[in-house]
UniProtKB/TrEMBL annotation:
Pathway: Cofactor biosynthesis; adenosylcobalamin biosynthesis. Converts cobyric acid to cobinamide by the addition of aminopropanol on the F carboxylic group. One of its GO terms (molecular function) is ABC-type vitamin B12 transporter activity. It comes from Haloarchaeobius iranensis. InterPro entries: Cobalamin_biosynth_CobD/CbiB. This is Probable cobalamin biosynthesis protein CobD. GO terms for biological process: cobalamin biosynthetic process. It is found in: Cell membrane. It holds the Pfam family CobD_Cbib. The gene is cobD. It is a multi-pass membrane protein. The lineage of its organism: Archaea, Methanobacteriati, Methanobacteriota, Stenosarchaea group, Halobacteria. Keywords: Cell membrane, Cobalamin biosynthesis, Membrane, Transmembrane, Transmembrane helix. Coiled coil: none annotated.
């Protein structure tokens, strides 16, 4: 195993190994059950914040500051302790932490399932969509269901995969402990937003704004990846014209880029329409879009491994 002059295992090597372990676990094992999933544990920690407060914005600010730091600090402590025992033990724990904060296999599988069911069992497709998108699917047509699956795959590529992976890769050259903590912090910020960041919840205002800030770069990096994987670099520029349609400052980038690359209409009824002149994705086109998301995730993983190695 590569070591430095003092015989200590190189941090870049252990960081790259952690990335490989995380991706390998995602591909071979997938998501652990909720009772064993650290993100589910964090969700139970957030749940008590979701209630009426006398000063909801203040409570929300405190939660947005404290809870992600608690998650990051816990991960940092465990990785640091393992690294003191053995550098490769630290790499394993960091890889487990990164695996808990990233998810590609389940995202792709669930999106493909919705696409498949949209042609076989419309009721089952509407039910399956609940695992991907927070919208009322009761009246969605097959085309709108496929649209939602493609949109969710593109958006979650940025939020649930590229963002924590990029944080890990950028911080890995400095410290394996810091890299794992960074990925945990990013995932915690996104989880807070997914649970609290709604207009109907004043306590979630700070979480939503923090998530907007943290996901700014990952959303654009994901759009760039999607455009390159599709072999349609101009899709990124076409997507810009549709951004005003999307309330989020970030999710429109990967969704719009994929809409342009596939030449399809992606739509959330009553909220936005991307590429309005096209038709909703056919089953085959929707499947191709989801697989392009998967391929973009693979490219992101390779790039993250290279950056972590530097």
């Amino acid at each position: 195993m590569p070591t430095d002059a003092a015989g200590v295992v190189d941090v870049p090597m252990t960081a790259a190994a952690a990335v490989a372990l995380a991706v390998g676990l995602d591909l071979l094992v997938g998501e652990p059950p909720n009772r064993l999933h650290p993100v589910a544990w964090f969700g139970r920690l957030v749940a008590p914040v979701d209630r009426a407060w006398n000063r909801p914005r203040l409570a929300g600010v405190l939660a947005a500051l404290a809870l992600p730091l608690l998650a990051a600090g816990t991960v940092a402590a465990v990785v640091r302790l393992a690294s003191r025992v053995d550098p490769w033990a630290g790499a394993v724990v960091a890889g487990l932490a990164l695996a808990a904060t990233t998810s590609l296999r389940m995202l792709v599988a669930e999106a493909l399932r919705v696409v498949r069911l949209s042609t076989e069992d419309i009721a089952a497709a509407r039910e399956a969509l609940r695992s991907l998108a927070g919208r009322d699917a009761g009246e969605l047509s097959p085309g709108l269901l496929r649209s939602a699956a493609v949109e969710s795959a593109a958006e979650n590529l940025a939020d649930g995969f590229v963002a924590p992976l990029a944080a890990f890769a950028v911080l890995a050259p400095f410290s394996l402990t810091l890299a794992a903590a960074g990925a945990a912090w990013v995932k915690a910020v996104n989880t807070l937003d997914s649970m609290l960041g709604y207009h109907s919840k004043p306590v979630g205002w700070a979480s939503a704004r923090l998530d907007d800030l943290v996901m700014w770069l990952p959303a654009r990096l994901s759009a760039l990846l999607l455009a390159q994987v599709a072999g349609r670099p101009r899709a990124l520029w076409r997507a810009r014209q549709w951004l005003p349609e999307v309330p989020s400052p970030n999710s429109g980038w990967p969704m719009g880029t994929l809409a342009a690359a596939l030449e399809v209409r992606l739509e959330k009824p009553g909220v936005y329409v991307l590429n309005a002149g096209a038709s909703h994705p056919s089953p085959r086109t929707a499947q191709r879009g989801v697989l392009q998301v998967a391929s973009s995730g693979v490219v992101a993983t390779i790039l993250a491994g290279v950056v972590a190695w530097l």
